[in-house]
Structures are given as C-alpha cells and as structure tokens.
C-alpha cells in the first residue's frame, strides 16, 4: 500500500462503510424469509461484498479482499437458491461482516489481521451447499498465468466455475497505470468502478514487482494492473469496451471456450491461457491446505448430498464476538480518524445555507449604507432583517447536526437476536419513531446507555419461553424501543413485558453490598428503592454471565445521560414488565436558558430544567419558608419544596445566622424572595437567587480544564455584552448540597387521588422537638404526658431516665434515630409516655403541647426518614408526623422479638398467613402494610371494599384475616364486612376494623354487621396483637 495516497484510501473506506451500513438489517431480513428469499435483497448484500472486494484488490488490501470474496461465494449460493439461509449460516455471515468492518476501521493494519476462522467457516458453508462431486472444487486451486507463463492469480476452481455461470466469460485484463490510465486523465479507482459496472471482478492485483528497484538497476516504463474479470461480453468486442489493445486482454474460460479460444488464438498468438491449460492446472497443480481440508471433511459429514446445509462450523467468539488479529491494531490511523470528523449533509440544506449567507451579506451592506447616511429608520429595518436571517441561519446550521435515532436503533435487532440465541429465549423487538432526530453529539453519547438498557431487558426482563408459558404469557417476549417528541424534548422508552423488578429485592441487595443501611431502606418508598439500582456496583443478577450481572452499568448509564442533559425514570410492575423512560434535549450546542444573578454574578439555567418561577412576598416569607430538620423548605400549594441558596452553595456568600432566624439568609434585603423551581432528574427543588432576568438562547461552550471537575457547572457562555456567564448544572447543585427531593410524577398522582377521595379526620398530639420544629403523634397512642425540669433527668448506664410512679422511666430524644434538630436539655421539658410491647417509655419534647382534631393530608415523601412517617401542614406550619413504633423498635428491637417468634411458630404449623388490608388512603395503607409485613405476615393490599371483595372471590382460600378501613369509596368497611359474614365461603374470616375516630355509634353498627374488633389505625402494637390473637385461636 506504499504507493497509495490517503485520499484514495479514504474514498475506499467511506464507500465501504456505506456498503456495510445496512448489512445487519438486510441479513436479518433474509434470515426471516428462509427459503422464500427476496433475490433483490440478497443481490444488494452480494453487491456490497463484491464492491468491497474489488476496491481491496486494487489497493493491495489482500486480507479484506479474501474475506469479502469468501462472503461473496456464500451469498452467490443463496441467491442461486442452492443454499437456504438458516440462522447458523446468517450468524456466520454476520460475524464475517463484523470482521470485515473491523478490518476497514483498521485499514492500514488490515493485512496483518487474522481472518482464518471466518474463511474456514465460510468455506465449510460453500462446500456443504454443493453436490459431492463438486465439493472438491472449493479447495482445488488454479494458477492463472500471463503470456510469459508467470502466475498472476491463484484462485479456487469453485470461484472460476461460478464466474462462468450464466454464459459468462472470464478474462485476464492487463492495464498500464501510466499509459492506459494516467495519460488518459483517468483515476485508477474510477477505472475499477467502471469495470465493476459491466461485470464482476474476481480478483485484482497491482504488480509493483514489475516496476523494478534501485538495487537491481532495472526500471520499467509501465506499472501493470491485472484484473481477473467475468462478464457476458464476448471476446470479439471486449477490447473496445476498455479501449485497450487486444494483446492486453486474454480469455481464461467461457461458455464456448474451445471455439472462442481457437478463434482468438488464430488472430492473436499472444493469448496463452486457454481452456486446456486450465484443465491441466486443475489436474496437475491441485493444492490443498491440510487444516482447511480437515475442516471441510468435518463439514461434509454434517451435510446431506445435494441439499442445503443445516449445520455449519461456527466461528468462535472473542469478547467482542470477533476473532482477534494476530497483532492488535495500532492507534487509529489518519484515514480512520477522518470518518469521525465528517458529517453528511443533504444538498438542499447546503443550498439553503448558501442562500441565507447571501441574504446576510446583503443585509450587512444595507446596514453599512444606512449607518453612513445616518438614516435611523433604515438602520432599524436592516437590523431587523439581520436578526431574522441570523435566526434562520441558526436553525439551518442546527439541522446539519441533526441525525435520526434510527442510526442507533438499527443496531438493536442484531443485538437482541444474538442475545436471544445466547440465552435460549424468544424475543421480538419492535422499533418505533426511528425518524425522530437528535443532535449528533447526543446520538453518539446515547449509543452505550441504550445498548446496556436493551441488553438488560433481554437478559433480566424477558423470561425463558417455558417460564412465560407457565405464567400464561406468550412464549415470545416483546421489547419495544420507541422515540417521540414531547414538550420540546425527545423521549425514548425501553419497554418489555418481562418479569419486572422487585423494589424490595433491589433494596436487599443494596444493603448486602453496604451501599445503604437497613434504617435508610425502611424509610424508602418503592420508587426510591428502584432508584437504588443506579448506585455503583449494584446488581440483582443471580449469576455473573457474559451478558450482565457484574454490577457495573446502570450507574454509568445514569452518569452518561446526566452529561447529555438527560433524565431517566423507571416504572415496573412485578410479573408484568418494566418501562424505562429517557428524556433528552434536542441539542447541546444552542439552548434556551433563564438568566439569574446572585451577588452581582450572572448565571444561566437551561430552560429544560426550569419548572416555574416563584416570588414570595416579604409579608409571607416567614409563613411560607420553614426549617424542618436540617432542611429549609418552601410551602408551595401544600407541597414541601427543599430550598437551596445559590449564593451559599457556590460559596459566594457565607451565612452564620442562628437557627431561629435562618430565614434571613433568603431575605437579606428585607424584600421578596425569588425562587427558581428547578427540575433535577425526577426531583425538584427551589433555587433562591437575587434577581431573575430574561430568557435567552445561549451558545454552550465547554469548561476549561481548571473548571471541568466543578460539580455545579455544565458549561459556559458569552453574553451579549461580551462577559462570560457560567451555565448551572441543577443535578450537580442538588448533589453538591446533598438534597433529597420528591418524585414529582408519583406524588402528583397520589395527591390527585387524595383530592378526589377527600381528606381524613385525625386526632393528633402536637409538640415541639427543637425550637420551631413542630411534631405530632396520634393522640390515641399517648398514655400520659409529664412536665419536668431538665435537672430531673438522670443518666444511668449511659441511658437517660426520670423518676416515674415509684420507678424509673427510660426517656429518648427523636434525634437519636431521626436526622432532625438538637433538643437542648435545659429549662422546662415534656415527656410523652407510650406503652410499647408491655414497656413504658418516654419521648422528650419541648412545650407547648396541644391536641387537634382536623382533616389533614400526610405527605409521606418529602421528609420521610427513620422514625418520621411524613409531614403535614397544621396551623399553617409544617409538622413532622412521628412513627413512634419504628422509633422505639429501632432503639430496642429485642422488645418486639417475642411475638415475631410466636408468629413464625404459627407459620411453621399452619403455613403462610395472608392478611387482606383494605384502606383507601395511600399513606395509611403503606404504613399499616409495612408494620404487618415486618411482623412476618404476607399482606394483600386493596384500595376499597369492592376491590377486596373481588379478590376474595378470585382467591377464596388464601386470606386468613381481613383488616379494613370504615370510610372508603365504592364500598365501605361496613358493606364489605356484611358481605363477608353473610357468605358461607368467608364467614369464618375474622374482620378487624381500622379507624381514626371510632364513636360508640360506629362501634355498635360494626358489631351488627359482624366486625370482630376495632383498632386505631396507627396503634401498631394493639393491631398486631389483635391479628396474632385471631390467628392463634384458629391455629389452636
């Protein structure tokens, strides 16, 4: 390849990549057709291999030429219907094309790379598809000589025979690069393409040995280029086709060889290669490679005579499903690097850009003339025109970077097919929205994350066929990969109908690996448990395989999507499947942004991350901004939004205010507080700034090496006044400040449901933890309240106690379990006494205390943590709702062991016990479900009486106890109990009623319909004791 310039080589590489672009999808389509092939589609793939082979021969790329030629032979058998393209054959062709692509990517080292396994496998296929008497032709070789008797080409007899089918002739053509090409103003590569347009190139060779060297002192005035060529054009007119003398064209073989050759030899004695010589070569100069011959013999045993092959010798896979080269390719060559720096643009788009550039020049000239004349009206008109043209030019330039997601979607049919074969599964992949366009940079960055997610769906999601059939599913699993536009973004969904993900299993794995604690898991909802899968090193795979299970990937997926400005969200239903949604900006180059400023510095926030803008009037600041635990929150339409001071998190200003006046840092000037509600992935929080400015389109510039590791910045931009403004990364800021936010979509759905169902009445006991930190517990759980002095507290054995009714009462502070404010042991204090598992214990608090009866919404997302069930708004103040049972169980787990062990004994004797929990409130249903399951029972949740009744009828033998709320939509607790007690199938079931407020009238009505027991909703101790008692009676 020493004589080849980069331009010629690059032209060949680009054309070869074009040919290979749709090979995978074409071969997979051919595989699906089986015997009923589409000949045009097979011809398309054949022509791709043929074109690559032809150019490779001319350029001296012998390894590429050989592999492409062997692929061509197999495709020729398929298109002649001598071979049925079964999955094994298509698999070998796919791997061969993979290797061919790798050779082209490493074009300058390709001749040193190994293709022996692929060549052997392809030869096995070719020989297996032939009648036995012709199979030897695959390994027999024929020397093709010139008039001097020098061997120019050595080819397989099979290739020579194939070349003459259909009445074709085989010619040996000799070109001279100097006289026949260069002096006629032709390019060698163009000549090769012209030859291919009228026939097929069997082989091609540039004979550099004939030129001579400086050492031997012999120089030739010509550079021979030999082409072994097959065509239907007859010998008497072949020389006119190529404008060559007759002596430079030799007939090797043809349909009527004997007659044609005798005529040619009568006219041209210089033609020495004839049919007789070919036959002599076949008889006397047969060569066979021993290793190849052995493998061909093995293949023969597996193939029936004169029939298409059903089994072939597979190519062994390396880590990339491709054989390794004998010597690893060096760093990417200049030729390969050019490909990454080029971008194809439609001609119409280029013409539009040229027109707009012309309009811009015209408008500039008009502006300059108007300025010279001092005409303000013309200046304004020209400026408006420039603004319009510039906007159109920007849009047109952006379009040059846009590419369809089909560019990456198209590789997944092959990925899924190979995985399905490897895993023994049947999987159908559906692609939707392949025409949706994204920026080239995003497309390139999206490839790896999407590949990982699709592989996960195939491996972890879709079950084996027998397992799917046992579940009543179609044995063929389905994966849908879909792209669509929504709200100025591109959304990509990966949806499967597999087994789904179990949030509890993910949480358990995270705890086992030490990524989170059990206490943290207890305070998580299902959504938060699912999101643990994005932690580094977490894997739920039971086995480590080549496909997955090594605990790497999902964290990298999220990290890569964060870099692209994307968001990822997971929805799953156990037994039904999983949907992963990705949201991406259309482009990263020019983005609409909101300008803000703090401490005199300007910053840009991408509009895609801005949810809304809020200005809190000065008169409402103290009511709407509060401190709960360690978090500052904004009360927005009944929702708690974590607050973050941009000046503080960026270190532009320090605050040393006391906790009692923490609001001052948000209201330093005494005026209104301006808040940007920022969307950080699936969370949102409030970003407090000094000023809100205009929304503008900015050009994104990468950060310099000194700043690129800063967590809170995504880039920089140059403003209209020439100053630089940093672009904020809202996800990075949230991480920097260690914010924990709310899942918006889930919470919106829950809030909407609660509004439809109405709020529930609760009686709560109110107290303070630290000053200004309001807390509440259900009043029914409080046994007694004691007012004490701090001096009365004693510390014995490392534990705090007070004298109480002739004994000692252990007391605890909320901060011992929950991450909230510190309670100072000074002055007047309150001890709230509870009875837990037969033990009296006290909770320290600060006065004042109060009891309220009100309809409240309990938010179990924003501030939930160990010991804290959630929060609510009482007396216009954010109040923490204390989970008193979780609090004391965390401190003293041994107190609760005895009954749990008794439950386990019952389970051993009578089997698993299922509790049907009927509760319309999401909050109470999740709370009660959790502590019943913690006790060792299986819980079946139902949101109203009708759902519960339907479940009972569908599963008549599963339920042991029914625990039901009273006030519910569709069917209340009284109606449900009446149906249960009147049914001969269910009348034996004990029914425990849950209520917030149980009046005497309700209790009497309950007894009439058959309710067996009444319990307060959050009185965990008594409810569990009631369930245990009923089950113990049944067991006895």
Give a verbal description of the structure.
There is one protein chain. Helix content is 40%, strand content 25%. It has 1036 residues and is α+β, with helices and mostly antiparallel strands. It has six domains: 6-301, HPT domain (Four Helix Bundle (Hemerythrin (Met), subunit A), Up-down Bundle), CATH 1.20.120; 347-401, Methane Monooxygenase Hydroxylase, Chain G, domain 1 (Up-down Bundle); 406-501 and 540-585, Histidine kinase-like ATPase, C-terminal domain (Heat Shock Protein 90, 2-Layer Sandwich); 590-736, Beta Barrel (OB fold (Dihydrolipoamide Acetyltransferase, E2P)), CATH 2.40.50.180; 744-891, Beta Barrel (OB fold (Dihydrolipoamide Acetyltransferase, E2P)), CATH 2.40.50; 893-1035, Response regulator (Rossmann fold), CATH 3.40.50. The strands form eight sheets. Strands 25, 26, 27, 28, 29, 30, 31, 32, 33 and 34 form a ten-stranded mixed beta sheet that branches. The chain has a six-stranded mixed beta sheet with strand order 16-20-21-19-18-17. A five-stranded mixed beta sheet has the order 8-10-11-13-12. Strand 31 (828-836) and strand 32 form a beta hairpin. It starts with 5 loop residues before the first helix and ends with a helix. The model is unreliable at 256-314, 316-339 and 741-758 (pLDDT under 50). Its EC number is 2.7.13.3. Keywords: Kinase, Phosphoprotein, Transferase.
């Amino acid at each position: 390849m020493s004589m080849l310039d980069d331009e010629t080589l690059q032209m060949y590489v680009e054309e070869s990549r074009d040919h290979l672009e749709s090979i995978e999808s074409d071969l997979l389509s051919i595989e699906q057709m089986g015997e009923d092939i589409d000949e045009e589609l097979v011809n398309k793939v054949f022509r791709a291999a043929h074109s690559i082979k032809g150019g490779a021969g001319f350029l001296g790329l012998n390894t590429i030429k050989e592999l492409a030629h062997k692929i061509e032979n197999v495709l020729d058998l398929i298109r002649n219907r001598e071979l049925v393209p079964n999955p094994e054959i298509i698999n070998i062709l796919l791997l061969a094309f993979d290797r061919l692509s790798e050779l082209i990517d490493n074009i300058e080292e390709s001749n040193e790379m190994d293709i022996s396994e692929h060549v052997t496998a392809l030869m096995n296929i070719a020989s297996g598809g032939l009648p036995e008497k012709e199979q030897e032709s695959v390994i027999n070789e024929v020397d093709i000589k010139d008039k001097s008797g020098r061997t120019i080409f050595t080819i397989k007899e099979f290739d020579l025979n194939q070349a003459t089918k259909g009445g074709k002739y085989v010619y040996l053509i000799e070109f001279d690069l100097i006289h026949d090409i260069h002096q006629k103003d032709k390019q060698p590569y163009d000549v090769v393409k012209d030859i291919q347009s009228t026939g097929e190139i069997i082989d091609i060779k540039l004979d550099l040995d004939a030129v001579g060297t400086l050492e031997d002192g012999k120089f030739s005035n010509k550079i021979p280029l030999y082409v072994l060529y097959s065509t239907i054009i007859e010998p008497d007119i072949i020389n006119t086709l190529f404008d060559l003398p007759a002596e430079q064209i030799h007939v090797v073989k043809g349909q009527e060889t004997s007659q044609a050759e005798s005529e040619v030899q009568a006219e041209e004695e210089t033609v020495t290669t004839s049919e007789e010589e070919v036959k002599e070569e076949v008889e006397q100069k047969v060569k066979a490679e021993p290793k190849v011959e052995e493998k061909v013999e093995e293949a023969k045993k597996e193939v029936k005579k004169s029939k298409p092959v059903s089994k072939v010798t597979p190519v062994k896979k390396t880590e990339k499903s491709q054989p390794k080269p004998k010597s690893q390719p060096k760093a990417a060559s200049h030729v390969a690097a050019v490909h990454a720096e080029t971008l194809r643009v439609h001609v119409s788009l280029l013409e539009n850009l040229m027109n707009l550039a012309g309009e811009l020049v015209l408008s500039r000239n008009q502006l300059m003339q108007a300025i010279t004349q001092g005409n303000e009206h013309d200046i304004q008109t020209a400026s408006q025109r420039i603004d319009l043209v510039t906007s159109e030019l920007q849009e047109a330039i952006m379009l040059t970077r846009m590419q369809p997601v089909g560019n990456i979607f198209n590789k997944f049919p092959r990925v899924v097919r190979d995985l399905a074969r490897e895993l023994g599964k049947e999987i159908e992949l559906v692609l939707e929205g392949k025409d949706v366009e994204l920026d080239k940079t995003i497309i390139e960055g999206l490839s790896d994350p999407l590949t990982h997610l699709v592989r996960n769906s195939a491996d972890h999601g879709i079950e084996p066929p027998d397992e799917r059939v046992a579940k009543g599913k179609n044995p063929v699993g389905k994966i849908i990969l879909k792209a669509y536009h929504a709200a100025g973004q591109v959304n990509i969904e990966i949806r499967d109908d597999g087994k789904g993900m179990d949030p509890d299993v993910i949480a358990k794995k995270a705890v086992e690996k030490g990524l989170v604690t059990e206490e943290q898991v207890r305070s998580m909802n299902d959504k938060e448990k699912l999101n643990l899968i994005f932690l580094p090193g977490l894997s739920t795979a039971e086995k480590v395989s080549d496909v997955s299970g090594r605990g790497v990937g999902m964290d990298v997926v999220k990290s890569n999507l964060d870099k692209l400005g994307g968001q990822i969200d997971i929805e799953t239903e156990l037994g039904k499947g999983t949907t992963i949604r990705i949201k991406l900006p259309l482009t990263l180059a020019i983005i609409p942004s909101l300008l803000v400023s703090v401490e005199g510095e300007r910053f840009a926030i991408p509009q895609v991350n801005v949810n809304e803008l809020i200005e809190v009037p000065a008169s409402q600041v103290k009511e709407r901004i509060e401190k709960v635990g360690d978090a500052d929150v904004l009360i927005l339409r009944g929702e708690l939004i974590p607050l973050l001071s941009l000046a503080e998190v960026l270190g532009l200003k320090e605050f040393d205010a006391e906790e009692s006046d923490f609001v001052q840092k948000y209201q330093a000037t005494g005026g209104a507080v301006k808040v940007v509600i920022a969307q950080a992935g699936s969370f949102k929080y409030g970003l407090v700034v000094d000023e809100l400015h205009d929304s503008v389109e900015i050009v994104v510039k990468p950060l310099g090496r000194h700043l690129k590791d800063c967590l809170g910045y995504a880039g920089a931009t140059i403003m209209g006044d020439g100053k630089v403004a940093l672009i904020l990364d809202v996800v990075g800021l949230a991480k920097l400040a260690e914010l924990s936010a709310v899942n918006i979509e889930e919470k919106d759905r829950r809030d909407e449901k609660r509004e439809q169902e109405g709020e529930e009445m609760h009686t709560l006991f109110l107290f303070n933890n630290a000053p200004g930190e309001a807390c509440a517990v259900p009043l029914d759980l409080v046994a007694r309240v004691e007012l004490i002095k701090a001096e009365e507290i004693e510390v014995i054995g490392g534990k705090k106690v007070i004298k109480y009714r002739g004994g000692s009462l252990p007391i605890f502070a909320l901060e011992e379990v929950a991450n909230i404010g510190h309670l100072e042991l000074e002055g007047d204090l309150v001890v709230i006494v509870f009875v837990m598992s037969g033990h009296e214990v006290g909770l320290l608090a600060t006065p004042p205390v109060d009891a309220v009866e009100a309809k409240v919404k309990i938010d179990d997302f924003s501030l939930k943590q160990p010991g804290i069930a959630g929060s609510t708004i009482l007396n216009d103040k954010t109040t923490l709702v204390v989970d008193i049972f979780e609090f004391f169980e965390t401190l003293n787990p041994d107190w609760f062991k005895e009954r749990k062990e008794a439950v386990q004994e019952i389970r051993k004797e009578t089997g698993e016990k299922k509790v049907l929990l009927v509760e319309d409130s999401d909050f109470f249903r999740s709370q009660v479900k959790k502590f019943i399951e913690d006790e060792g029972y299986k819980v079946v949740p139902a949101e109203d009486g009708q759902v519960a009744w339907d479940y009972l009828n569908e599963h008549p033998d599963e339920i042991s106890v029914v625990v039901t709320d009273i006030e519910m939509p569709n069917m209340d607790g009284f109606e449900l109990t009446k149906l249960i007690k009147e049914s001969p199938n269910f009348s034996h079931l004990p029914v425990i009623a849950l209520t917030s407020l149980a009046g005497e009238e309700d209790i009497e009505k309950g007894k009439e319909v058959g309710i067996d027991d009444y319990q307060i909703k959050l009185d965990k101790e008594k409810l569990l004791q009631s369930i245990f008692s009923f089950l113990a009676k049944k067991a006895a």
